[in-house]
Each structure stands twice: as structure tokens, then as C-alpha cells.
Amino acid sequence: MKRLNPGQLEIDLFCKGIRIDPSCRLDRDARLFSRTRAGLGSGLEIVIPGDLKDIWMNVPVEEDFCALSPYEMRWDEAMGYHVLDTRSDEAYPVRIPPTPAWYERTTSSGIPMSRIGVLQGTYLGIYVSEACMFWTPQENANCQFCTSGVNVGVNEVARKRVADVVEVARAAKEESGSTFTHFNAGYQWEDKPEHTRAHGLNRAAPYVKAVREQVGGFIGVQVAPVLEHDLWKYDWLVELGTDHFSFCYELHNPEYFEKHCPGKFGHLGQDAFFRAMEHTSKLLGKGKVSGEIIAGIEPIEDTLQAIDYITSVGAFPTVCIFRPLIGADMEHFRSPAYEDMLRVFEHLWRAMARNRIPYGIIPNIEVSLVVQPGDAAYLAPRDLGWRAYRARNAVLRTLAKPYVAWKMRPRPVTTSATEHPKLPPPSLPVTPGGGSREAA
Ligand code: SF4
């Protein structure tokens, strides 16, 4: 069996998971296993070194299919941590990112910092509301691959003080070199007696403004899309300091979307995701918005179509490899086949290059839950087109340096995070809105 390159190894590990050999001392060396997100991120964070780039990934370890994996995580004096493929005896050296020191500290209000936000790869992920409404008994319409209703409030503080979030964002930036703070939320309502709902964008707004003013860095928001008449809210969030939006529409095939995402289907529909993605991509420019999908549930042809659509509107595809999480409705589904996923990410690279979508421009954003476009570069032939696309991105990266330096500094924001001429007075019902996968 041929030795895999780092991109191929990443994909195979996502599909097959890993067994942990007793030689490993992960309780001492690894980040705590985080089940705080909807979580395709229930596994072990590792870094696979490579000549193009190092790859950060979250390897499945707990799910049933991992027990059958040919891969074993081992440690010895000579190699340190490595992934052993027991089919071929190939050993792949890896690094285990340590637990950040700030995980052990509390905020000034006494909340453990790791219950406010966690690093997912190298960026800070913060869930900014209580459990997704689709998990409530009234709705009973959660996405079937998701476990966020099981985890939020157990591993994370449901309602977070803005001051606590600022403290954690500052610690992640200063001590862990995080350049990107990502806010996400499940589908929400307002906990008022009349049960009117506040959109996730309204919920994220005060956090975005506070981090922009007091910490700096790039800021992303991932909540369910607003409907057409409320698209102005994205412009408002940009004024407050948002640099990136992502939209988890999960499945491109309408029948699979309806079946596996009943809440998103019933309350929003795929079109809401498409309109919001198109609006924000125009607003922010190419490569600043992502469309998030899961590969391995719907037919591969639909996933390839999703990639073509997302790149055609100037967004980049964030593709998660389906993980049958413990506790999810789809817990007993099969993990996808390596060959199918390879096809998906080879296609992703070609679509990114064809549409000239910039990637990797902001330093140090490594997302461990997905195969990033930069990771997919390992899968393509290193021909002239490959070199030209990578060279173009390298130029953009250099040109962006002064802008990045400016963005990393805090700056004042004059826009209000709670009042806007188009927002209804607090006593009136507000627009329905919703959630996301990674929050989700
Ligand atoms: S909207 Fe997000 S948090 Fe809610 S059920 Fe779906 S994936 Fe989970």
C-alpha cells in the first residue's frame, strides 16, 4: 500500500478514526476532548506536518467505527507521537497540540475559561446562546447528525457575559496566537413570556462589537440565515466588526435536506441559506463567506454540485466529513468511504482554482473540523494550474499583510449593537431566526 500524503491521511483518518494505544499519555499531553459543539468535533486534535502546510485535524476516537480502524495512535522515544497504519506498518509522525494554559483559568466572574470558548484548531470558537431551539420538546426537529442539544449547558455556559467572552478572546489571542474569533449559535428564540424569537445575529451583535473594540483580530459569525426582508442585518453586523459569515445548509439535495434537517427545512428552507450567502458574499467580497456542507450523507454527485454552487457565488466550501456522533440520531449510520471523500476534495480544489477563490490569506486560521481548501492542495497534481493558483494566493497574502496588522488591533465602533432604526422596540416580537451546525 502506497504511503499517503498528509491530505490523503487526513481524509482517511476522518473516515476511519483512530484507536489509542496505551503507550500514549494523552491525559497529560492533549487538549481535553471537547464535545461542546454540534459538534463534528468530538475527537483528538492532532497536527500532521507536511511540505505544503501542516494540517490540523480532529480525529474521531470515541465513535463505534473507530474500534475497527487500521490506524493506531502510538508514542515511543524515537518518534514521539505517530499514527501507525497497521495494514502497511507505515508510521506517520504527528504533533499533539497541548492544552492552552488559559483553559485552566477562570474569568474575573469565576467561570472556567474553557466553558466560555475553546480552540478548534487554532481559532477560538464561542457558542453564544443556549441550546438550539430545534432540540426543545415543542419543536423536536433537530438536525439528525447533531448533538449540540445534548452538550450545550453541560460543557459550556449557556448565556455568556460579554466581559467573560472578551477576557477569553484576549487570552486566546495573546497566549495562543489566535487571529480569529468565531461566534455561533443554534436556532434561537427569546425567552420572554410570549416566546417571541430573537435572531442569532442579534445575539451575536454585542459580542462582535466588544471583541472588535477590546481585543481585535478577525471575527466570524455563524448563525441561521435571516429571511429576505432582514438581509440588512448582515450589513449591520459588518459595521459592528464582522469579517466573515458562514452558512450551514448541510445538504444540497432537497430531499435529504428535508429528511435530515427537519427544523431548517420547516423554518427556513434552503433558499434562505442561498440568498444570505449570495448577499454576504457580494457585501464582503470573494473568499470571505463560506457555505458549510456535510459530505457522506447525500449522494456524492449532490455534494459536488454544492461545491460548484458555493464557489460560483464567490464563497468557499467548508466541507465536513460526516461523523456518526455518539448521541446523534444518526449515531449508527456508516462513516463515509475514503475513495468518495477523496473525490469530493479533489473536486473542491478544482472548483476553488477555477473560480479563483482566495484561501489562506489570514495567517494562522487552521480549522480542525474540516478539510480546508489549503489541505486539498495535497490532492491535486502539481501542474502549471496548481502552481499558478497557489502563487496568486501567495501574492494576495503578501499584499494583505498591512491590512491584517490593522485588523489585529482593537478599534472603536460607533454603531450600536442593541439599537438600530430597523430593529423593533424591545416589547414587540422580533424576527424568527436560527442556528448552525457547528454550534451546531
Ligand atoms: S440548527 Fe445547528 S444546533 Fe440546531 S439541530 Fe441543527 S445543527 Fe444542531
Write the topology of this structure.
Blueprint (H helix, E strand, L loop, with lengths): L5 H11 L2 E2 L5 H4 L14 E5 L6 E5 L11 E6 L3 E6 L4 E4 L24 E3 L2 E5 L20 H4 L10 H15 L3 E5 L15 H15 L3 E5 L9 H9 L3 E7 L3 H7 L1 H6 L2 H15 L4 E7 L4 H13 L3 E6 L16 H17 L18 H4 L7 H16 L1 H7 L33
Parallel strand pairs: 1-4, 8-9, 9-10, 10-11, 11-12, 12-13
Antiparallel strand pairs: 2-3, 4-5, 5-6, 7-8
Helix pairs in contact: 4-5, 5-6, 10-11
The structure holds iron/sulfur cluster (SF4).
How would you describe what is shown here?
- The protein has helices at residues 6-16, 26-29, 148-151, 162-176, 200-214, 232-240, 254-260, 262-267, 270-284, 300-312, 338-354, 373-376, 384-399, 401-407, and strands at residues 19-20, 44-48, 55-59, 71-76, 80-85, 90-93, 118-120, 123-127, 180-184, 218-222, 244-250, 289-295, 316-321.
- By secondary structure, it is of the alpha/beta class.
- The chain has 2 domains: 6-93, no CATH class; 101-407, Aldolase class I (TIM Barrel, Alpha-Beta Barrel).
- The strands form 3 sheets. It has a 7-stranded mixed sheet with strand order 7-8-9-10-11-12-13. The protein has a 4-stranded mixed sheet with strand order 1-4-5-6, with no helix packed on it.
- The structure holds iron/sulfur cluster (SF4).
- Iron/sulfur cluster (SF4) is lined by residues 38, 132, 134, 142-143, 146, 148, 186-187, 263, 435-437, 439-440.
